[in-house]
Design brief:
Radius of gyration: 28 Å
Shape: elongated
Number of strands: 7
Strand content: 25-35%
Largest sheet: 4 strands, antiparallel
Oligomer: single chain
Length: 154
């Protein structure tokens, strides 16, 4: 056998061995269970966080943010707008109204058909926009609204 033939054979062997080693390493990595760390502090619980829920961002664009907040008066809605003269307080539900809405379950979330936004209703305050990237699951926003109403009515 000539030198070029030997070089070609050795190159093919090295290439094949490299491919086998890479395949074995990739397979072992694929089989390894992903490592997950608890991001939650040891003494925290979801109930504690929900009990202290006072304000939450429900809608966000580059120019506007809508907040729901528990205040001394009840539940309020505020829009922060980058444009001058826009935004500010929108409405307030008194503690009595919040309790009545909570008792009658007169709140709901409608994800609708749009890709980025859905709507929610809290009693007489209908069709307020929410951002789906903030609340991918409508049930979660409904739970948050319920908790805000509970906190506002107490």
């Amino acid at each position: 056998m000539s030198f070029p033939v030997w070089t070609q054979v050795i190159t093919q062997i090295v290439t094949a061995v490299t491919a086998v080693v890479m395949a074995v390493l990739a397979y072992r990595t694929y089989l390894r269970a992903p490592e997950q760390e608890e991001a939650e502090p040891e003494n925290a619980s979801d109930n504690e966080a929900e009990d202290s829920l006072r304000e939450i961002l429900v809608f966000r664009t580059s120019k506007q943010k809508t907040w729901l907040a528990v205040t001394d008066q009840g539940l309020s809605c505020r829009i922060d707008d980058a444009r001058p003269g826009k935004g500010g307080p929108q409405w307030v539900l008194s503690k009595t109204e919040a309790k009545a809405i909570l008792d009658s379950e007169a709140y709901h979330v409608n994800p609708g058909y749009k890709a980025r936004t859905g709507t929610f209703t809290i009693g007489p305050r209908r069709n307020w926009l929410y951002t789906k990237s903030l609340f991918p699951e409508p049930d979660y926003l409904e739970t948050v609204v319920k908790k805000l109403l509970e906190n506002a009515s107490s």
